Amino acid sequence: MPCPAIFTNLAKLTHNSKLVVESCQAAGLSVMAVTKAFCADPKTAQAIQAGGVTWFGDSRIQNIARLKEANLGLPLCLMRLPMLSEVDEVVRLADMSQVSEVITAKALSEAALKAGVRHKVTLMVDLGDLREGVWPRDVVAVAKEMAALPGIELHGIGVNLACYGGVIPTHEKLSELVNLAQAIREQAGVALPLVSGGNSANLHLLPNGMPKGITQLRVGEGILLGRETIAREPIPGANLDVFTLHTEIIELKEKPSVPIGKIGQDTFGNTPVFKDKGIRKRAIVAIGRQDLNVDCIDPLDAGAEIIGASSDHMIVDITDASPSLGIGSILKFNLQYAALMTGLMSPYVSKEYI
Ligand SMILES: *Cc1c(COP(=O)(O)O)cnc(C)c1O
């Protein structure tokens, strides 16, 4: 079995997807599954699709192309504001994109007319997180301009919170979005069926905290890791172990816990500090910072503790772990989002399915 590897349990993933879809449906919402953390791998996307999501969304056009190629049957949304240099690809590959600039909407409209396709757009609104989006007082005017463009359909508005600014989605914030949607319908004369209320950080508002009029959430981490993302609380009933990292022990020795010699900078320019715990049983596993973000993984073996990593080696204190561990043994880890994302795109980490 190749190592290191990330194992994806597809049945557990489908369970999480179904759970999130059902709790959203109970509140009148549909779910766009966000595929960027796993580079839109079609098998993984399919397992999520089996849970009842109605759209796929991704930030990168390469991933949208991968989903298009896989022909899974769901519409595709480009979630990062399109670059002007990619509008031709965007209208060819994606059914919808999220926009905040009239210049970009015009370019999409022209590209769509040229390609003979109809392209939907979601107008992004900034409700204070200070990443993408039009300022609320400008939303209706911008919507009118976009609605008038012949090649695109202004299909919805959306907001993204809890990303750059960490602003928590609340009933009040989302009500503002619902009100803006209503103002656009009345003043720009469009149906605007989609009101996309945010990401996994909104899941804590279910079942009762979501205002009427929000029609969709865009969910990545909540489905993949089974947690909402405000406090990273588990979603009741969700699997927290869809993904598992396997690493192999390549050295196992008893050594002191404090290095011997004068301490300077490590590989990454930090000056390390050490606590003297005496002689410890230290396993080196064949994984490091070049493989994935090792700061965001947690040992699954009871008693194992990560004590450091360089580019290619990670050191785990297994003094208090199972005595049966030896050279060639597998140490397993749970992955937080940053480790999952970097691991699943790493050419050095094998991808396996259960
Ligand atoms: C990544 C992303 C999401 C999904 O975020 P999660 O926290 O993984 O649910 C939703 N919307 C946009 C615009 C994104 O870029």
Proportion of residues in β-strands: 15-25%
* Tally of separate helices: 9
Element order, helices and strands?
A: EHEHEHEHEHEHEHEEHEEEEEEHE
For the record, give the distance between the C-alpha atoms at the N and C termini, rounded to a whole number: 13 Å
> Largest sheet, if any?
8 strands, mixed
Q: In terms of structural class, how would the helical and strand content be classed?
A: alpha/beta
Low-confidence stretches: none
| Chemical compounds bound to the protein | pyridoxal-5'-phosphate
Number of strands: 16
Query: What's the pLDDT, averaged over the residues?
Result: 97
Please give the share of residues in helix: 25-40%
Q: Measured on Cα atoms, how large is the radius of gyration?
A: 23 Å
Oligomer: single chain
Shape: elongated
Q: Helices, strands, pairings?
A:
Layout: E1 5-8, H1 10-26, E2 30-34, H2 42-49, E3 55-58, H3 61-70, E4 76-78, H4 87-93, E5 96-99, H5 102-115, E6 119-125, H6 139-147, E7 152-159, H7 171-188, E8 194-196, E9 216-219, H8 221-225, E10 243-256, E11 279-285, E12 297-299, E13 305-309, E14 314-317, E15 330-335, H9 337-344, E16 350-353
Parallel strand pairs: 1-16, 2-3, 2-9, 3-4, 4-5, 5-6, 6-7, 7-8
Antiparallel strand pairs: 1-10, 10-11, 10-15, 11-14, 12-15, 13-14
Helix pairs in contact: 1-2, 4-5, 6-7
Bound molecules: pyridoxal-5'-phosphate.
Pyridoxal-5'-phosphate is lined by residues 34, 36, 59, 79, 160, 199-200, 218-222, 229.
Q: Nutshell version of this structure?
A:
With 354 residues, this protein is an alpha/beta fold. 27% of the residues lie in helices and 24% in strands.
